[in-house]
Amino acid sequence: MKPSKTELKRNITTAMIREHGLGLIRFFGLDPNLVDPINLCKKLRRLENQAHRITTQLCNGFYEQEAELFKIEEKLKALLDPHQNVLIKKQINAIFINHDPRGYSLKLDTETIKYFEELGEEFPHRDWGGYGILAPDLTSDIENEVEWISNNWDELNGDMLPTKHEYECRGFLMPPQITIHRGA
């Protein structure tokens, strides 16, 4: 049965946030048993929005907000390194707040990303400049997936069955429910 667009959007939103959060947990070496990927992403997104609002105010001449950015940076570092793990200090120190309000505020530098890519570790979301984005807005990605699945539903159940299974594994689609009828 074809899911509604609302149901698809809800599933895809949760799945994409979870995927990004799990990628951050892996990259920063956080304990997946202690850190919920969805809550991590929600906290980061709130910090992103706060930092973006402050960087916009700074560009408009309200310089008294500068101290607030330092507080956000400290919260960010504490969130991504709650146990002050010495092995990943290079990653934590590479986090910065981009003061240009035209893009994302919470980023990871390109050198750190290149270094860890050479070790086989991928960062979950990057911008065109190669910087890591800690709290991306996934809205357009979600909308694109919803539209694509809705428009290609018949093909997903026919020739594109492997793609449908991939979407089910990622949590975009819920596998069909098996109902067991018991005799009276």
In short:
The protein has 184 residues and is mostly helical. The chain is built from 8 helices and 3 strands; from the N terminus they run H-H-H-H-E-E-H-E-H-H-H.
* Percent helix: 55-70%
Shape: elongated
Whole-number radius of gyration?
20 Å
How far from one another are the termini?
A: 28 Å
Strand content: under 5%
Name the helix and strand elements from N-terminus to C-terminus, one letter apiece.
HHHHEEHEHHH
Please tell me the overall pLDDT. Answer: 86
What kind of sheet is the major sheet? 3 strands, antiparallel
**DSSP helix count?**
8
Number of strands: 3
| Oligomer category | single chain
Order of strands across the widest beta sheet? 1-2-3
Q: Label the structural class.
A: mainly alpha
Give the low-confidence spans: none
Q: Secondary structure elements and their pairing?
A:
Layout: H1 5-28, H2 37-59, H3 66-80, H4 89-93, E1 95-97, E2 106-108, H5 110-118, E3 132-133, H6 139-151, H7 153-156, H8 161-170
Antiparallel strand pairs: 1-2, 2-3
Helix pairs in contact: 1-2, 1-6, 2-3
Explain this structure.
This protein has a domain at 29-136. The longest helix has 24 residues, at 5-28. It has eight helices and three strands, in the order ααααββαβααα. Helix 1 crosses helix 2 (37-59). A hairpin with an 8-residue loop joins strand 1 and strand 2. It has a three-stranded antiparallel β-sheet with strand order 1-2-3. With 184 residues, it is mainly alpha-helical. It has helices at residues 5-28, 37-59, 66-80, 89-93, 110-118, 139-151, 153-156, 161-170; strands spanning 95-97, 106-108, 132-133.
